[in-house]
Structures are given as structure tokens and as C-alpha cells.
Write a structure and sequence with these properties.
The complex is a heterodimer. By secondary structure, chain A is mainly α. Helices cover 72% and strands 0% of the residues of chain A. Chain A is elongated and about 75 Å long. In chain B, α3 crosses α4 and α15 packs antiparallel against α16. Classes of the chains: A mainly alpha, B alpha+beta.
């Protein structure tokens, strides 16, 4: 599967063929990945593709260029596939879902117009978020007038812990969807387009909710520290 | 081409070294003074010829306006961001320096850019290596602090080129140190390298696995090192002197350098002694005397050392590791000899640091290992591979003056990112991109790397062109940019305006020895040096003939020596430097016994009246052959 990286007969590095990160490692488009095996493959491929090792051995400029491109792709691929969230986002990207892009364009639009970017609150968190925001407002006001309310701190601390637990739980939920997805791929995904779309959408939803919580926890930390 | 010699060079703030792989072990190549360390000091002598190393150090005190040290602090930097440096170091910027121009400093009545000064140091190391091998050296691996940004790295590469070296790879200093360590230990595990040198601090965390050296995270401070400790002590001494003796010597360059030298000697002594008596002679004959204990010294320097804690904690955080998960801590850099630093490292990482390797030499040795990996040399390095990271996030300035990060810090290199741009106005043929390095949100808080102008975009309606720009950080940690307009498939021309660097043309114009004449120049130089050595050994022999020891030689021995002397004189008149060297070696061999006899007389004279018990002969340096070139004229 990886023969495209180098010539079968002379072993020299080849020009990079357009490929996705999973194919680069000879992996199917499945979300459960054996991380130990991935690392081993990464090291093995590094030994073959890294510019340092093809530097002296009489390689010409073109080969050096390909080596540079191949190894940068290798590093990007490894970095992406190694991390559970990045891996999921990447797969969704391959499926045509532009999570990062949507968020980025929205952020840029907001910056350009000076507006605050709209955040959609996940419905199951509405009450919690509302209460927390009230507490944070109170905290900010207290700080302004130099007031200190330990009970308030405790409330906020508890809320933060609750959010962090939810953040953790969402990862497990995501992993359950991975299993579903991988199952569909095993069964020959083309026939199950509708099911695939469903699992895909559920994963997008989990990632959005997780992101929202992460941003909220960051805001809480900032408010507490300042 | 396995015979192509590639050397490893540590271009340090305080000292520089050159090393190579001798068989299966890396070894430092000494200078012609027999020393492994070359002080990174450059001066101009009375004839405006550059002098590098120990000879230049003397110039620092005698004629400070003709000498410069710690030039590494100015590499890849602009005049606006060296204001702190200018306050603490006697760098004199050229009077006619324009805004936006590459920095130039004055030495005597000449001006030099920092890469040119560094090139003089590199050239000296190159010559030391050539003298050692007896052949030309044109390829090198040079080390840089891991936390060096793009401009600083480019400046280092430029310096290599100016010195006549093809820089095959820039290697991060802590990573190089880990190579030397790994070659030595051959163990898998997680290693932290704490590198506190003369001017920079780096902390790198690596995973060593079956010959792969993978950097997981790196952090540091490019304005933190032994120099800062020195400056703190110098300031205190100057304040003290003003208080005690009523004299303000801050503007007196010679006095400051004399104090600096004393402060450095004191600092080094306090690593092994509990108290030191300082006694500096000031201009005008007054003396500044003070007794310093190690405790007092440690208290004074604590704030400087404490600055290393933040980067260490951040690196561990970025690596996702706790101190307990780190297997080994390796110390690099002369400043790690300070007991307080070792104590701090022990506390931070909850273990005794590894101190087997010479902290002054380990980086150069590691560079030699990397040179060997690139050259495909020894069996020892066959399975070794370095996977390093970029220390700073790479970003693009976008609307609102904000930085959009496209390659994150601690990404394994080579690394790339692709961005798409389009035009705002109908028929627009250029797009300007501002690239930055750093972790902050606002572009103004990050380091400007360069402005790229993409030209030659086919004129179309606004918003239609799709320019794909590829940012690639290569294995040296240096950025390359390429662009293509996707609809027409046309490669966009990129004009780079580096924010702090030299253009290719400028570097070309500065190259010290032209490559074409390298061979010829090399031979000429070797001949000159060989003849100089002949003159020295013949002079020493004349001296030897007048000594008491000469009388004790047999007639045969005297005849042998006379024969070799005649042979050397004959060969010296000819053009074969290798034959001259052979004749010198033969004469050296032939006069070994004479030398020993002269040595014995000298020692016995010196020891007259002293008891063996109260003479601590200790482990001093091997005395030079008395017939060898004298160290002081």
C-alpha cells in the first residue's frame, strides 16, 4: 500500500502522489487506530523519507525536494491521526464537512465587522450555561469593587468541575460513534450512505458541543485568574 | 562520496568548537594552541586584520573599541529590538545605520554585520579542522539554539556561507547534545535537555527510541544565559565602586572589561570554592577589593536562574508529561556548572541531573554525530535519525491585526501548511502576505518574519483568482514559500523581504575566500603555516643548543639532530608543505630526549627548596614540549 512512496526496484523516494493521511499510512478510513502500530510505522517511514537520510547518498535536487514534501506530509499525517479529535475532524473533512472552515470564516467575519461571534448554546446545557454566566458576571462585578465572595467561588468551581466531567464524557460518546462508523466501513460503506450521514452528523454535533464546553471552561479560568 | 569530510560546529555565544566523527566516536578538533574551546571573540589588530579567540580576548581589555564578544546576541535581530542588549553590552552600532537596514557594528574604523563577525569565527574553526586533516573542509553542520527564530537561523546559515562552508544542516543545540548522550548510552526513554549557555537558554524534551531522537516539545529564552549573570555582577561591582571609592566607571570601557574579566573568573571559581577574594586594579591605580561567599553569590543570581523555570514547566505541559515520567535530565552549557543551577534542575525534574558529558563540548560532539548521519559514515550512527520540531508557531497577519496560526509550535519538521488567497479588486495582480512567528494573538506582539509579495497573478475579476500558497518549514527550521494561481496553473513569483536578514546578493558580496580559489588558497596557506612552524622549531633548537642539557647528549645524538636540521632547512626552501611537516615531525622526534632533559632541569630548579609533600602537582595540563612553539612571545 505504501509502495508509491519509493520505487520498488531502486528504493529511491518518489514524487508525492496526492493522497489522504489514512492512505499515506496504508490505513482504511476507520476511526479506531492502533496508536502503537501507528508510531512504529511513523518511525519506519521517517527512516525512509527524512531528508537527512537521503542527503548524502548522491540524491539530486529533485529527489531532495520530493523527500522534503513527503516527510512534511508524513509529519502532518502522523500529527493528525495520532490525536483522537484531530483524526475525527480530518475524517469529517474528507467527508465534506468543513468544521474548521465554518468556524474560521465566522471568526473572520466577526473580526472584520467588529461583531461578537455568535455561539450556539447546546440545548442540554442551556440552564447550566445561563446560571454560570450569571455567576461569572457577579464575579466580574465583585472584582471591580474589590469584593470577595468565597461562596461564589465555590459555586463557580463546582460548575467548572461539572463541565469538565461533561467534556470527558463527550469523548466517550465520540468513541462510541467511532465504533458505529467503523462497522459501516467494514460492511462496505457505499451501500449505507444514509447511515453514514447519520453517524457523521452525530460526530459533528459531539465535536461542536465539546468545543463549546472547552471555550466556556477557558472563559471561567480567565475570569477566576484575573 | 564517503570521503567528503563534514564537520560539526558549535557556534556558541561564549565559546565555539569544531568536531568530527573519528571512527565510532565524536572528537573535538583543537586549535593550534592545543585548546578545544575557541572564545567567540573577534578583534581587529593594529593593521586592521581580524583576530579570533584568546588573542582577541586580550584586545577586549586593551582596546575594547576594536573588539567584540557575544555577537550571537545580535544575529538575526533588528535595531529596534536590541535596545536591552545595547544597554548591557558594549556593542557600537554604525553611525550611518539606516532604519530597516541590517545591523552593523563598528570595530575600530570598520563596520561589520553580525553574520560577518560570526563568519570570522567559523573561518578560524574551518582552518583548525583543515590543519588537523591536512585537507580542505567545505561542509559543516552548525548548531543553533532550539528557540532561535527563522531570521536568527538564516543569519547563521549566511555566516557559514560567508566563511566558505556549505551548511548541510542547522541542528538545535539541545537535540545535538541528546545525540552525543544517546550515542554514549544507547538507551530508550524520555530525556530532558537543560541547556544554559552564555547567551541563550533552551529546554527540550525528547523521546529516544531505537536510534530515533524525536523532540516532543521545546521552549526557551534567547536572551538568557551566563552573560546575564555576569552583567548583574558587573552592575553590582560598579555600584559598589561608586559607593566605596566615589568613582563612576560605567563609561570607562577598559575598566568595565577588567571588571568583567574578574567577575567571570570569580563566578567560575565559586563553583568549586566557598569564598573568593576579589581584587581588581582600576584605572588610576585604585583597587576594588571584596570578599564574596558562594551563598551571597547564589542569592544575587537567583532571579536570573529562576527565569529558566517558566520555560521548563511550559515544555513539560506541551509534552503532556510530568517530571516523574522523564527518565533522564542532561545538562548542557558552561553555566550548568553552577551548583545552584544543578540544585534547581534537581528540584524541577525530581532527579539528579546527568553530568557525565562535558557541558562545554557535548553540543559540538553531537553536531559531529549529525554530520556523520548526513554523510552516511559510521556503523555507530547507521540507525540514528533526528526528528526535530519548530519552536514557534508560524502565523499570517489577517484583518484586524490578528495572527492566524497555520503551523503550531512543536510541530515535527519538515512541516507544511497551505493557505488560499484571492484578490479584493478587479484586475489585481499582487497579493501581500505578512508572516510572523510567535504565540501571541496580535501581530504586533509576534515576531515579523518576512513580507511576501505574490506577483504575476493573471488579472481577473475580484474574488476569482485562487492562489494556493504553500508554507514549508524545512529540516533546518527555515521557512520556504511557494505559490500557484490554481485557475491558470501559473506559479506566482514570490519576492521575499526578510525583516531582519541579508539578501542573497549581499551574502555573495561578503564571502571571505572565493570558492574557486579554495584549493590554491588552501595550499598557499598550509605552506605559510608550515614554514612558520619550521622557523619556530629551529629557533627553539638554537636555544636548546645553548642549554646545559645539550652538553649531556652523545656525539651520535648531536649528529642525528644536525642531519635532521639540515634536511628540514632544505625541504623548507621548497613548495611541498606535507614534506616540510614530515621533516618537522622527524626533528621533533629526534629532539624528544633533549626536551626531556631540559624539562627535568627546569622542574628540578623550580622545585629546589620545596618538599614533595607541600607541592601539589595534581593533575595539571601536560606541559608542552620545550622545543614546541612558545605560547607567549
Amino acid at each position: 500500500m505504501r509502495a508509491a512512496h519509493f520505487c520498488e526496484s531502486c528504493g529511491k523516494v518518489q514524487p508525492p502522489a496526492p493522497s489522504n493521511y489514512f492512505a499515506f499510512f496504508g490505513l482504511p478510513l476507520k476511526l479506531n487506530v492502533d496508536i502503537a502500530a501507528l508510531e512504529k510505522d511513523f518511525y519506519a517511514l521517517s527512516r525512509k523519507l527524512h531528508p537527512d537520510l537521503s542527503a548524502g547518498s548522491g540524491s539530486n535536487e529533485k529527489e531532495q525536494e520530493w523527500s522534503l514534501e513527503q516527510s512534511s506530509m508524513l509529519n502532518d499525517a502522523y500529527r493528525t491521526l495520532k490525536d483522537p479529535i484531530k483524526r475525527t475532524q480530518y475524517l469529517l473533512h474528507l467527508e465534506g464537512v468543513e468544521l474548521e472552515e465554518q468556524s474560521k470564516t465566522a471568526t473572520e467575519k466577526a473580526r472584520a465587522s467588529g461583531e461578537v461571534k455568535k455561539q450556539i448554546v447546546p440545548p442540554d446545557l442551556l440552564e447550566e450555561v445561563f446560571e454560570l454566566n450569571m455567576h461569572l458576571e457577579e464575579l466580574r462585578m465583585n472584582k471591580k469593587i474589590g469584593d470577595d465572595d468565597p461562596a461564589l467561588f465555590e459555586e463557580i468551581g463546582k460548575a467548572k468541575l461539572s463541565l469538565e466531567a461533561k467534556h470527558e464524557a463527550l469523548l466517550h460518546e465520540l468513541q462510541a460513534y467511532w465504533k458505529e462508523w467503523d462497522g459501516l466501513i467494514d460492511r462496505g460503506a457505499e451501500a449505507f450512505a444514509a447511515e453514514r450521514a447519520q453517524v457523521r452528523d452525530k460526530m459533528v454535533d459531539v465535536l461542536n458541543r465539546r468545543n463549546y464546553i472547552r471555550n466556556l471552561v477557558r472563559d471561567v479560568n480567565e475570569a477566576i485568574e484575573n | 562520496m564517503a570521503t567528503d569530510r563534514i564537520v560539526g560546529i558549535d557556534l556558541g555565544t561564549t565559546n565555539s568548537l569544531v568536531a568530527f566523527m573519528q571512527g565510532e566516536t565524536p572528537v573535538v578538533i583543537p586549535g593550534d594552541d592545543g585548546l578545544n574551546l575557541l572564545p567567540s571573540v573577534v578583534a581587529l589588530d593594529a593593521n586592521n586584520h581580524p583576530v579570533v579567540g584568546n588573542a582577541a580576548r586580550t584586545a577586549l581589555i586593551d582596546s575594547p573599541e576594536r573588539a567584540v564578544y557575544s555577537i550571537k546576541r545580535l544575529m538575526g535581530r533588528g535595531s529596534e529590538d536590541i535596545q536591552e542588549e545595547l544597554k548591557l553590552f558594549p556593542f557600537h552600532l554604525a553611525d550611518d545605520l539606516q532604519a530597516g537596514e541590517v545591523l552593523r557594528i563598528t570595530l575600530g574604523d570598520k563596520t561589520f554585520t553580525p553574520p560577518e563577525i560570526s563568519a570570522l569565527i567559523l573561518r578560524q574553526l574551518k582552518r583548525n579542522a583543515e590543519r588537523y586533516f591536512g585537507e580542505a573542509v567545505t561542509k559543516a553542520v552548525i548548531t543553533v539554539p532550539a528557540y532561535f527564530n527563522d531570521a536568527q537561523r538564516q543569519a547563521t546559515k549566511d555566516a557559514g556561507r560567508i566563511a566558505g562552508l556549505e551548511v548541510l544542516r542547522l541542528v538545535n543545540e539541545p537535540t545535538a547534545a541528546s545525540l552525543a548522550y544517546g550515542l554514549d548510552k544507547k538507551q530508550n526513554g524520555i530525556v530532558a535537555v537543560y541547556d544554559l549557555g552564555g547567551g541563550t537558554f533552551d529546554i527540550s524534551i525528547l523521546k529516544l527510541h531505537d536510534g530515533i531522537f524525536e523532540v516532543i516539545a521545546t521552549n526557551g529564552d534567547t536572551h538568557l544565559g551566563g552573560d546575564d549573570i555576569d552583567n548583574l555582577l558587573i552592575t553590582i561591582a560598579l555600584d559598589d565602586i561608586r559607593g566605596d571609592l566615589g568613582v563612576d566607571l560605567r563609561r570607562n570601557a577598559e575598566a568595565v572589561q577588567a571588571i568583567r574579566k574578574a567577575v567571570i573568573d570569580t563566578k567560575i571559581a565559586l563553583s568549586s570554592q566557598g569564598t573568593i577574594k576579589l581584587d581588581i586594579e582600576l584605572p588610576g591605580g585604585q583597587h576594588y577589593r571584596r570578599e564574596i561567599t558562594r551563598e551571597q553569590y547564589e542569592q544575587l543570581i537567583q532571579p536570573v536562574i529562576d527565569r529558566t523555570v517558566g520555560p521548563c514547566k511550559q515544555a513539560m505541559k506541551d509534552a503532556g508529561l510530568k517530571p516523574e515520567q522523564i527518565d533522564e535530565v542532561v545538562l548542557v552549557g558552561g553555566s550548568t556548572r553552577i551548583p545552584k543551577v544543578r540544585a534547581l534542575v534537581k528540584e524541577l525534574f525530581r532527579r539528579e541531573p546527568h553530568t557525565d558529558l562535558n557541558p562545554d563540548e557535548v553540543v559540538a560532539l553531537g553536531a559531529a554525530v549529525q554530520a556523520n548521519i548526513l554523510g552516511g559514515g559510521s556503523e555507530a550512527t547507521e540507525n540514528m535519525l533526528l526528528l526535530d520540531v519548530t519552536p514557534l508557531s508560524l502565523g499570517i497577519e489577517v484583518a484586524g491585526g490578528v495572527t492566524d496560526k497555520i503551523i503550531l509550535r512543536n510541530s515535527t519538521i519538515p512541516a507544511s501548511a497551505t493557505q488560499h488567497y484571492t484578490t479584493q479588486i478587479d484586475g489585481q495582480t499582487n497579493v501581500a502576505i505578512h508572516v510572523l512567528q510567535g504565540e501571541r494573538e496580535l501581530a504586533t506582539d509576534c515576531r515579523s518574519l518576512a513580507r511576501f509579495d505574490l506577483k504575476g497573478i493573471p488579472p481577473m475579476a475580484a474574488g476569482i483568482p485562487r492562489v494556493e500558497v504553500k508554507f514549508l518549514i524545512d529540516a533546518n527550521g527555515i521557512l520556504h514559500v511557494s505559490a500557484r494561481e490554481q485557475r491558470s496553473g501559473k506559479e506566482a513569483e514570490i519576492q521575499v523581504q526578510p525583516s531582519y536578514g541579508l539578501t542573497d546578493e549581499q551574502v555573495e558580496g561578503m564571502i571571505l575566500d572565493s570558492f574557486d580559489n579554495a584549493e590554491e588558497d588552501f595550499r598557499k596557506r598550509q605552506l605559510i603555516e608550515a614554514r612558520a612552524e619550521t622557523s619556530t622549531i629551529l629557533t627553539a633548537l638554537e636555544k636548546g643548543k645553548k642549554s646545559a642539557a645539550w652538553g649531556t647528549l652523545t656525539t651520535d645524538e648531536k649528529k642525528q639532530i644536525a642531519k635532521m636540521e639540515k634536511s628540514l632547512a632544505a625541504v623548507n626552501a621548497q613548495e611541498d608543505y606535507q614534506a616540510i611537516r614530515k621533516a618537522i615531525d622527524a626533528l621533533n622526534q629526534g629532539t624528544t630526549r633533549l626536551a626531556e632533559l631540559m624539562m627535568d632541569t627546569a622542574v628540578s630548579t623550580a622545585l629546589k627548596g620545596k618538599n614533595m609533600d607541600d607541592t601539589d602537582l595534581g593533575e595539571g595540563p601536560t606541559p608542552p614540549h620545550p622545543m614546541a612553539p612558545p605560547e607567549f612571545q
